[in-house]
Design a protein that fits this description.
four-stranded parallel beta sheet; 223 residues; globular; 6 strands
């Protein structure tokens, strides 16, 4: 497994908005909002996805929308929750597809904390990095999207042979930011119970990702 560097350094040197301190301005704005509202995730977890998966370590990108907005759920990585917290429905459906696609349907025990994926080079990137409690998408206009769009674009430009997993229309709206000639883009409905049965189940994205990585000289992800 890759080391947990817990550093933003590689991102701050590769993403122009971060080099300019844009992310620090956003954090200051969020800190002000924390004075009168409950905001998730905790301050030390806002950039966790970027800290645990440095720019040069990224091999796969999974795009989420915004953090979970229930108590104790958001941990700074898309779709992930802390160990010991019940898996939300979308995460349960992700595990169902992993079990079917990678393990032939055999029973598996999965940790709800996806840090193990992140340490293998899977960037679990929410488009908005903070949210107000019980108010989904409440920070969608705060300014995070300019930053995370640039992160996706810089990965497309600065790296080769990545896999981008775009689940649902929101994630798929980021497709124009990605060079399809340099990278593999896999699209499917969102794993939410509202849409998973419309094509997320059976999409085979996890085995396809590993096949692509292996074909280009990279180790497969242990999902």
């Amino acid at each position: 497994m890759m080391a947990d560097f817990l550093s933003l350094e590689t991102w701050e040197t590769r993403v122009p908005l971060m080099a300019a301190g844009y992310h620090r301005d956003l954090v200051a704005e969020v800190d002000a909002l924390r004075q009168t509202a409950t905001i998730y995730p905790a301050p030390e977890r806002v950039f966790y996805a970027l800290r645990v998966t440095p720019f040069e370590a990224v091999r796969v990108v999974i795009v989420g929308q915004d953090p979970y907005h229930g108590p104790g759920q958001a941990d700074g990585m898309a779709f992930s929750v802390p160990e010991g917290v019940e898996a939300p429905p979308s995460l349960r459906n992700i595990f169902k597809e992993v079990q079917r696609d990678v393990y032939g349907g055999a029973p598996r025990a999965f940790s709800n904390d996806l840090t193990r994926w992140a340490r293998q080079g899977v960037l679990l990137l929410n488009v908005s990095l903070t949210v107000e409690a019980r108010k989904a998408a409440s920070h969608k206009d705060l300014g995070w999207r300019a930053l995370t769009d640039q992160i996706i674009a810089q990965l497309s430009l600065g790296r080769e042979r990545l896999v981008f997993l775009l689940w649902g229309s929101h994630a798929q709206s980021k497709k124009p930011l990605i060079d399809a000639e340099r990278h593999l883009i896999l699209e499917a409905p969102h794993p939410s119970p509202l849409s998973a049965h419309r094509g997320f189940f059976g999409c085979g994205h996890f085995s396809q990702t590993n096949a692509y990585l292996i074909a280009h000289g990279s180790a497969p992800i242990v999902w």
